[in-house]
Amino acid sequence: MVSEKVSRCRRVCVVGAGPSGLVAARELRKEGHSVVVLEQNHDVGGQWLYDHRVEGEDAMGRAPVLGVHSSIYSSLRLTSPREIMGYSDFPFLVRRGRDARRFPGHRELLLYLRDFCDWFGLRELVRFDTRVDYVGMAAGAAEQGAGGAAKWVVRSTGKTGGKVVEETYDAVVVAIGHYSQPWLPKITGMEVWKRRQMHSHVYRVPDPFRNEVVVVVGNSLSGQDISIELVDVAKEVHLSAKSLQISEGLSKVINKCPNLHIHLQGYKTPSLFLNEVSILVIGFPFFESQAKWIAQVLSGRRALPSRDDMMKSVKEFYQAREAAGIPQRNTHDIADFEYCDRYAEHCDFPHLEEWRKQLCLSALRNSDADLEGYRDRYDDEELLQEAYQSAHFTQFGPDAALSL
Ligand SMILES: Cc1cc2nc3c(=O)[nH]c(=O)nc-3n(C[C@H](O)[C@H](O)[C@H](O)COP(=O)(O)OP(=O)(O)OC[C@H]3O[C@@H](n4cnc5c(N)ncnc54)[C@H](O)[C@@H]3O)c2cc1C
């Protein structure tokens, strides 16, 4: 809904300088708001800021405050091709001297995010090494903004010196991600099992599992990736899945690796736990449309639906998810193109380009058929050419996609 009232400048706090927080900061500033980003880490990147220092971390990730944010393991390569990942006005191009692969390693995405920050001058908005401990509505009439809108108190602690700072903002955008805090399955015997148990949040490299018998619980992308790299060092790897209906690609790996076995879930004596990590299929453009909408709602260019309409919609959403058997903890997994397109319509953000959708589907099909090789062998050349000739890739010059 477009409103007549426009251009109200707000003082906004964004919590987190990962892919969502950065694009939120960019959109908020573009809309004329004053923005401060509070980031607990020393750099931007969120999950993509790889951190090997997991020794001090609770192996099961049960601590209320995690010491390490990133759950990225050393060998991780993107599951989606780089062409579909970029924000609408900043394609994820190949750069000279960098990882030029279509499914690059995790560091390449961190470098892309750093480039994005530099290009749009976002670093100056970020207060690093600052952890937000509390966000709450300010009390009292004196704290009310113009028009009676509530204000927000944000309490943060600096990592160096531990100084607590309390500030008041007109609005807060929480962009802290949802892949760090581990979710643990309830498995009988888990509490009394004495040998090594860990969550994939603290998994980095396969070496500590040399000659061990390892059970990997969770047959999603990370579970499969990690199992495949463990077979080279572990004595046996048992991948525990919810269903024995597995992809052709995984069957091939199992047939090839005599020490890799797949089972239906129900282990009593595991030595390694992994959480299922599902990913938003095309995250970055979706984060961008969310950011645009937030910025425009705050400036008054867009109006939110009425409270009743929102509550009705929330109820319908949960009912539909429940009917489809999706657990509430997966509420944020809304990986479908239609949802992203409908969302974009709220703020006149373009629909996902057809080539983006098709390249994404092609990668999913390839990974199903060839789990080990899909990142290096593909047959979507025509789609790729279509992408390179699209406005997304030619906005920085006709050959930007190919220039090194
Ligand atoms: C193993 C793994 C593989 C993945 N692979 C892919 C992939 O191939 N493709 C893909 O598109 N996505 C993938 N993802 C999803 C990935 O999470 C998203 O790409 C993206 O990082 C989400 O961005 P975000 O900004 O929402 O959250 P995050 O990247 O998690 O960033 C959140 C930021 O908030 C900060 N923060 C958190 N709490 C606080 C606090 N209290 N105070 C201050 N700062 C705080 C964090 O330090 C961090 O910088 C993967 C995720 C995982 C875990």
UniProtKB/TrEMBL annotation:
EC class of the enzyme, as a word: oxidoreductase
Keyword tRNA-binding listed: no
> Keyword set for this entry?
FAD, Flavoprotein, Monooxygenase, Oxidoreductase
SUPFAM superfamilies annotated for this entry?
A: FAD/NAD(P)-binding domain (SSF51905)
Task: Indicate whether Zinc appears among the record's keywords.
Answer: no
Q: What is its EC number?
A: 1.-.-.-
What transmembrane ranges does the database entry give?
Answer: none
Q: Which InterPro entries match?
A: FAD/NAD-bd_sf, Flavin_mOase-like, FMO-like
Q: Name one Pfam family in it.
A: FMO-like
Name what cofactor the protein needs.
Answer: FAD
The GO molecular function terms of this record are:
flavin adenine dinucleotide binding; N,N-dimethylaniline monooxygenase activity; NADP binding
Name the protein family.
Belongs to the FMO family.
Family matches, as PANTHER family: DIMETHYLANILINE MONOOXYGENASE (PTHR23023)
Protein name per the record: Flavin-containing monooxygenase
